[in-house]
């Protein structure tokens, strides 16, 4: 059976690799399965592309050539791109096909942590499970590699475990110290204990009552979608033909030795043009994450499932919910799951793990999921911090592809260990694992491919390999961007931490603002540092839809769904110019992106907080106060306000605002979409704001500000004016 031929990915990869990037040396080193350091002769250095990468159209053309590839990888997530990079750096002729965009699935929807797995180590010790221990050991070594391979996209992050019972202090301290010990020389920074006062100083939002102290340990954090893309782009630099929006429809087979059919390629379709063509390869690798079994069944319909998916839901809240550089971990929530509370991209991510799900349905965060996370957040934050439902700016659910026996029901008992299987027809499948160990998974997979298909390749070359943008990056690179191009400091820091040394290429195409400062760099939305030039550059990075830009080239959709929707029209206009879209195509892209935000990024559950059926639960005095505010705009007592009413009031207090912005502001509250805001809709809005279900309503803030301005402008009585007759 294919499953019996599995090769478990538990080899310990460590030691610093001697091989250097862009001119690999003759030798590299690794640890064998017994932990011994082994030095081996490396493959010949593989030429690296300098300058611009091939366009997507050129990559599609290369796929349609008659040449046979050594390796063809199905799946453009972290593992698939890692396999393509590993194969290409060994000198193998490599192709990669992804039916959507690179990192469009699980790899962009993670907790953003690069970690060994504190809870897995706990299980390994409690159950004396050596396999789990080896998995944690490998993950910690891979964590160190990942942080070094793309320092612009990743960094160590201190994470706090607040302690509320005295007996927990020594228990967790021992566990965390063992975590440091297992990491050995790859330990990022040593963990330490904090007193109650010091813990509150570093994390002032924490609940104070019953707090005993805290323990701080270190793991890594990264921009997952950009990291995935960097792996794909680096593979392309080493000669891999990488194509997104290319769907595999069936596996091609031909007679092999012993009369058995062997997989010899795929029939695929260019999703953007509809054109179908065959791609032939000596070895086909299935690296499709949660969709592993669907590809395996293309090979053999009767094969049993080996992938049991688990969903992790995450929400994004404003940055003031957490310190800038300190995360929080609750190792045991009310239902036994782990919850993370982390700063990321100047926002705060709160997320949980291990909810069994159906892989065939697209993960959509529910109101129940969001409320559970909010309740856990409330348990750890002080009473003076009001955790509001309206502060959820985005929400998403990511599928974790765990490998298990098909009869197993409990995904929480599963580790992230990966398995490489070889079917009777030669299809190689890599499944399980986790983001942190993508490189080790790819190494084991290509090792199996070389062995199974007798491919002419040397040893793995990716240990120590720097990814796209890492070569010329430094922590002070953003200063040169400010000085040389006249970018805002915040924008420059963002470009440096997103593109690394390639940030200069983005800065070169940034538009002049026409202002004294900044000189270049027009923002897509005012509150985020993303600029229009990134859309143009994103097309060069194989972005082909508006969703690619808002979710993976930039992370706007993951940070604030309303801001992403606000930026969409401009993004579509820029992409239309780059890709020659017609008006109909632009409309389709806008609609598709809005649907993505609505269902997959939490916009639906956000807008459901204020509907035309929302109840009004206000005190009579509040109702009268809000009615007066409403009638300041509705002078004619029509019972509703329009853009003209708002413009009239704003002009009276000398405030200018363009009509498109006003239309957007009113549309947020116009529940029946009739172009006007009625009194009942306004009262529903104010009731939802009071309950915390809605926050940041521009209309509510605008009307309150206008009311205060009008009061200040009322005539001052003569007897208090210091003069008069």
UniProtKB/TrEMBL annotation:
Top-level lineage group: Eukaryota
UniProt KW Flavoprotein keyword: yes
Enzyme nomenclature, EC number: 1.1.5.3
UniProt keyword annotations, A-Z: Calcium, FAD, Flavoprotein, Metal-binding, Mitochondrion, Oxidoreductase, Repeat, Transit peptide
Gene3D superfamilies registered for this protein in UniProt: Alpha-glycerophosphate oxidase, cap domain, D-Amino Acid Oxidase, subunit A, domain 2, EF-hand, FAD/NAD(P)-binding domain
Statement: the UniProt record of this protein carries the keyword Metal-binding: yes
Domain EF-hand positions: 621-656, 657-692
Family matches, as Pfam families: DAO, DAO_C, EF-hand_7
Biological pathway: Polyol metabolism; glycerol degradation
GO cellular component, one term: mitochondrion
Entries under CDD domains matching the protein: EFh (cd00051)
Location of this chain's protein in the cell: Mitochondrion
One Gene Ontology MF term: calcium ion binding
Reaction(s) catalysed (UniProt annotation): a quinone + sn-glycerol 3-phosphate = dihydroxyacetone phosphate + a quinol
SMART domains (alphabetical): EFh
GO terms (BP aspect): glycerol-3-phosphate metabolic process
Protein family according to the UniProt entry: Belongs to the FAD-dependent glycerol-3-phosphate dehydrogenase family.
Function noted in UniProt: Calcium-responsive mitochondrial glycerol-3-phosphate dehydrogenase which seems to be a key component of the pancreatic beta-cell glucose-sensing device.
Protein name according to UniProt: Glycerol-3-phosphate dehydrogenase
């Amino acid at each position: 059976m294919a499953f019996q031929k599995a090769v478990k990915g538990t080899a310990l990869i460590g030691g610093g690799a001697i091989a250097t990037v862009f001119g690999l040396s003759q030798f590299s080193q690794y640890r064998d399965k017994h932990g011994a350091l082994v030095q081996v002769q490396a493959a010949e250095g593989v030429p690296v592309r300098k300058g611009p990468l091939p366009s997507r159209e050129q990559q599609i053309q290369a796929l349609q050539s008659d040449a046979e590839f050594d390796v063809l990888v199905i799946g453009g997530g972290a593992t698939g791109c890692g396999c393509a990079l590993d194969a290409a750096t060994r000198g193998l002729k490599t192709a990669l096909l992804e039916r959507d965009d690179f990192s469009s699935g699980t790899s962009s929807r993670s907790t953003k942590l690069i970690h060994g797995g504190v809870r897995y180590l706990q299980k390994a010790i409690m159950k004396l499970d050596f396999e789990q221990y080896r998995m944690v050991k490998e993950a910690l070594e891979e964590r160190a590699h990942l942080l070094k391979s793309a320092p612009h996209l990743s960094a160590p992050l201190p994470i706090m475990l607040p302690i509320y019972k005295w007996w927990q202090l020594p228990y967790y301290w021992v566990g965390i110290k063992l975590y440091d010990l297992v990491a050995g020389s790859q330990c990022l920074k040593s963990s330490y204990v904090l007193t109650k006062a010091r813990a509150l100083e570093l994390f002032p939002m924490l609940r104070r009552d019953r707090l005993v102290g805290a323990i701080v340990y270190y793991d890594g954090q990264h921009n997952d979608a950009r990291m995935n893309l960097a792996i794909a782009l680096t593979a392309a630099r080493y000669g891999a033909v990488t194509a997104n929006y290319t769907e595999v429809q069936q596996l091609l087979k031909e007679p092999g030795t012993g009369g058995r059919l062997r997989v010899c390629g795929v029939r695929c379709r260019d999703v953007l043009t509809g054109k179908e063509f065959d791609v032939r390869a000596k070895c086909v690798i299935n690296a499709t994450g949660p969709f592993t079994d669907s590809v395996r069944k293309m090979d053999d319909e009767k094969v049993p499932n080996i992938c049991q998916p688990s969903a992790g839901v995450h929400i994004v809240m404003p940055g003031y919910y957490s310190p800038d550089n300190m995360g929080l971990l609750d190792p045991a929530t009310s239902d036994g799951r782990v919850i993370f509370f982390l700063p990321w991209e100047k926002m705060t991510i709160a997320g949980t793990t291990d909810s069994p799900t159906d892989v065939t349905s697209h993960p959509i965060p529910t109101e129940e999921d969001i409320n559970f996370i909010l309740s856990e957040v409330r348990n750890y934050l002080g009473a003076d911090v009001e955790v509001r439902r309206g502060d959820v700016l985005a929400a998403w659910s990511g599928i974790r592809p765990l490998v298990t026996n098909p009869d197993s029901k409990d995904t929480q008992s599963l580790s992230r260990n990966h398995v490489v299987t070889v079917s009777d027809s030669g299809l190689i499948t890599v499944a399980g694992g986790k983001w942190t160990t993508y490189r080790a998974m790819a190494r084991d997979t290509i090792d199996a491919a070389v062995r199974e298909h007798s491919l002419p390749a040397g040893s793995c070359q990716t240990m120590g390999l720097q990814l796209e943008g890492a070569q010329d990056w430094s922590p002070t690179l953003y200063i040169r961007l400010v000085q040389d191009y006249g970018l805002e400091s915040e924008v420059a820091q963002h470009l440096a931490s997103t593109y690394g040394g390639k940030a200069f290429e983005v800065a070169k195409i940034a538009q002049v603002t026409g202002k004294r400062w900044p000189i270049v760099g027009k923002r897509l939305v005012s509150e985020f540092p993303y600029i229009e030039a990134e859309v143009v550059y994103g097309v060069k990075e194989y972005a082909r839809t508006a969703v690619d830009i808002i979710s993976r080239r930039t992370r706007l959709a993951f940070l604030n769904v309303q801001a992403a929707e606000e930026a969409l029209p401009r993004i579509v206009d820029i992409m239309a110019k780059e890709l020659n879209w017609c008006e109909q195509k632009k409309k389709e892209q806008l609609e598709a992106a809005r649907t993505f935000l609505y269902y997959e990024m939490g916009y639906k559950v956000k807008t459901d907080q204020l509907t035309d059926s929302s109840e009004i639960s206000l005190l009579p005095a509040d109702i009268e106060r809000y009615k007066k505010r409403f009638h300041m705009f509705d002078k004619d007592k029509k019972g509703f306000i329009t853009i003209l009413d708002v413009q009239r009031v704003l002009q009276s207090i000398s405030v200018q605002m363009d009509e498109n912005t006003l239309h957007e502001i009113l549309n947020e509250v116009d529940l029946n979409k009739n172009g006007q805001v009625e009194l009942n809709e306004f009262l529903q809005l104010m009731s939802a704001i009071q309950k915390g279900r809605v926050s940041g309503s521009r209309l509510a803030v605008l009307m309150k500000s206008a009311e205060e301005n009008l009061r200040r402008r009322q005539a001052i009585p003569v007897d208090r004016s210091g003069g008069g007759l």
